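Example for tutorial group B:
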């Protein structure tokens, strides 16, 4: 531990202790009715919300907001831990000691320099560290699963689940030799999706139903499901290409959402200012304003 860390540790520990005491005070009799009414299950939505608010702050590189959102998230986690402590299931101390023990155990190249795991630069390479991390999880902590993919929670959002699946597979050597092969896979899947969508349109036309949003139409259901499957394959291949280049698809997509929101609301404002209805008849003017929004800083 560096001298600076040692110097700061007491103040940091005191701050963490204060958050703990605040959570206890708000939960116990005489505290806040809202905090007292919460349960670990009810806290799920608040933890998720705080995570997304923190992600926004990090994405916008807003340090001040990130500091605040980290505090909000930390309090929600502490409050949840205190709930279990009140039930005598486990204590906040158990939580802290548990994660500290895990971090020390999974970083032998840092904390156990005499056990042969800290063999110079090679022992500290990212690949070596990741491989050792997985080995410890499976063989020391006995967390081995039937499949490496079973380690990924089933409740993850689809984009996050895809990235984790692909990362787990890559960690076992199941990976493209380079990202050019991954890019070729995107083109292959796009072509297959084009064919499937063409088949869907033909089936709908033959049936006289021109609404592809109704997959229940018996005459086109098979074609719809095929197009849906090919769309999933395309999205997965894009996520993989991005992952190989260090880009998080979920973060990238959210940035695109923010950009779309900014540009579309600009179009709405300009159309209202000019007294022009927003409909297909005036698409040209909307596109004109869209191009203006794109060129704006």
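The residue assignment follows.
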């Amino acid at each position: 531990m560096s001298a600076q860390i040692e110097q700061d540790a007491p103040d940091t520990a005191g701050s963490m202790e204060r958050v703990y005491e605040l959570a206890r005070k708000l939960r116990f009799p005489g505290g806040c009715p809202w905090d007292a009414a919460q349960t670990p299950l009810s806290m799920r939505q608040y933890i998720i919300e705080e995570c997304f608010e923190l992600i926004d702050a990090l994405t916008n590189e807003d340090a001040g907001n990130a500091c605040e959102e980290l505090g909000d998230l930390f309090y929600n986690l502490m409050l949840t831990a205190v709930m279990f402590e009140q039930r005598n299931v486990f204590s906040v101390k158990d939580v802290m000691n548990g994660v500290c023990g895990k971090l020390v155990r999974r970083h032998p190249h840092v904390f156990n320099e005499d056990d042969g795991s800290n063999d110079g630069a090679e022992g500290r390479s990212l690949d070596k560290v990741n491989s050792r991390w997985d080995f410890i999880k499976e063989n020391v902590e006995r967390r081995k699963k039937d499949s490496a993919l079973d380690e990924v929670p089933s409740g993850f959002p689809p984009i996050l689940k895809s990235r984790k699946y692909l990362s787990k597979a890559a960690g076992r050597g199941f990976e493209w030799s380079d990202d050019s092969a991954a890019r070729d896979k995107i083109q292959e899947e796009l072509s297959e999706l084009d064919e499937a969508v063409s088949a869907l349109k033909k089936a709908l036309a033959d049936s006289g139903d021109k609404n592809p949003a109704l997959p229940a139409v018996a005459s086109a259901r098979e074609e719809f499901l095929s197009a849906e499957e090919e769309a999933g394959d395309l999205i997965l291949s894009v996520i993989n290409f991005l992952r190989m280049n260090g880009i998080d698809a979920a973060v990238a997509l959210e940035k695109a959402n923010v950009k779309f929101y900014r540009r579309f609301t600009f179009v709405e404002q300009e159309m209202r200012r000019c007294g022009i209805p927003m409909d297909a008849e005036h698409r040209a003017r909307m596109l004109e304003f869209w191009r203006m929004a794109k060129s704006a800083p």
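Residues 179-207 form the longest helix (29 residues). Compare this with the pattern of hydrophobic and polar residues in the output above.
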